[in-house]
Amino acid sequence: MNSETELAPAVASILDAARERGGDDETVSVAARSLSDALAQAESDGRVPVIAEVKPTSPTADGTRDDDPVELARAMIDGGATAISVLTEPSHFGGSPEALTRVREAVDVPVLRKDFVVREDQLDVVEADLLLLIVRFVDDLEGLIAAARERGFQPLVEVHDRTELETALEAGAKLIGVNNRDLARLEVDLETFESVAAHVPDDVTLIAESGIGSPADVRRMREAGADALLVGSAIMDHAGGDSDVTENTRRLVNASDGDDQT
């Protein structure tokens, strides 16, 4: 694990809570829906591949949403989302494994489990198609990637800088997310993705995460090399209902049209 001296208090609290949570005694086995196939289908349809996130709350959010996660996911798919991300971290994000299970049963696209997994036993909580692993929080990344793949998960390995990128590549990551949110100050800078993406091999699927709030941001990340975008707040915030969630998603997946310059 990399140094924790640069973690914001909220992030340190998340990590402490993650270390306390256990997994299940029974090993999970997943017949995963292919993200690469879903990305290819979106591209073929002329849609920007967006992984839309069902996120009740977060340390950087203003307030909490208590919408039915299944209805939110369906609204996102109606707007053209390629995949769905569901928070399962309970203490700081209001998520749950049960919410992910309900969503995955209700949709036919890949579903990402968004959580803070630090040990192998924590893989065995719920079936999902993709699983987030954060380089900064993991001691044995190579071992955890291998264990995730053995269960059928497609591990999405999250990095924040070039050093973490090298760690991810050395561990064999083929699906990498670059998070634009700094873990020390919780500030967002899209240049983070741009600076890291330039050093990612062509055979790696690259996802831009955090801070993508407009069609212009989408185009910027795509021009920098993003194969897909993970978006939560821009879809969930200021959405009065499912129709707003659908429209917010649609604006982003159609960003390549170039009509909205905001």
From TrEMBL:
Asked whether the keyword Transcription is assigned, the reply is no
Key word Transferase present in the record?
no
- The EC number(s) given in the record are 4.1.1.48
Task: Output the SUPFAM superfamilies linked to this UniProt entry.
Answer: Ribulose-phoshate binding barrel
Give the enzyme's main class according to its UniProt record, as a single word: lyase
An example Pfam family from this entry, by short name, is IGPS
Q: Which PROSITE patterns match?
A: IGPS
Q: Which GO terms describe its molecular function?
A: indole-3-glycerol-phosphate synthase activity; phosphoribosylanthranilate isomerase activity
Q: Which reaction does it catalyse?
A: 1-(2-carboxyphenylamino)-1-deoxy-D-ribulose 5-phosphate + H(+) = (1S,2R)-1-C-(indol-3-yl)glycerol 3-phosphate + CO2 + H2O
Entry's transmembrane regions: none
What's in the keyword line of the UniProt record?
A: Amino-acid biosynthesis, Aromatic amino acid biosynthesis, Decarboxylase, Lyase, Tryptophan biosynthesis
Q: Which NCBIfam families match?
A: Indglycph_syn_Halo_TrpC
Into which family does the record put it? Answer: Belongs to the TrpC family.
Query: Would you tell me the protein name for this molecule?
Result: Indole-3-glycerol phosphate synthase
Organism phylogeny: Archaea, Methanobacteriati, Methanobacteriota, Stenosarchaea group, Halobacteria
